[in-house]
Amino acid sequence: MLYIGSDYAGYQLKEKIKLYLEKHQMAYIDVGTESGRARNDFTEFIPPVVTPIQKNSRHRGILICGTGYGMVIGANRFRGIRATLAHSVRQAKYARTHDNANILVFSAWQTSAPLATRILGIWLQTPFDALPRRIRRFKKIDTWHR
Predict the structure, then answer these.
(1) 111 forms bridges with which residues in the sheet?
(2) What is the value of pTM for the model shown?
(3) pLDDT score, position 37
(4) What are phi and psi of 131, to 5 degrees?
């Protein structure tokens, strides 16, 4: 399952990404926000995306805020989460192949809907290249959260 959430600044981009997902018959759960007018904190939408991913490693997520940085910082505070901000298709591809990113973050202020959907398409299609050195790195990172 794909979980998607945004604050007010990311609302419009989130709605366009949902249209892309529906067009490609991809299942998702929208955890909010419900409007671009209501001022809310990006922090409200991180746990509802992160928690199901922590419980099931096959799930993935999308988070969107104005800069994208707040969502990346917040999501990466959670054990087992590898959130990445991607501004290009190449970044999204490497985020999957090298870093096994399980949450894709967008800056609504920097990323157009057409670019976001291209980035998302590559990110969803690209598998993790589970080389031993990459697995070793994640195990090291996981020890930092204790």
Answers:
(1) none
(2) 0.96
(3) 87
(4) -70, 150
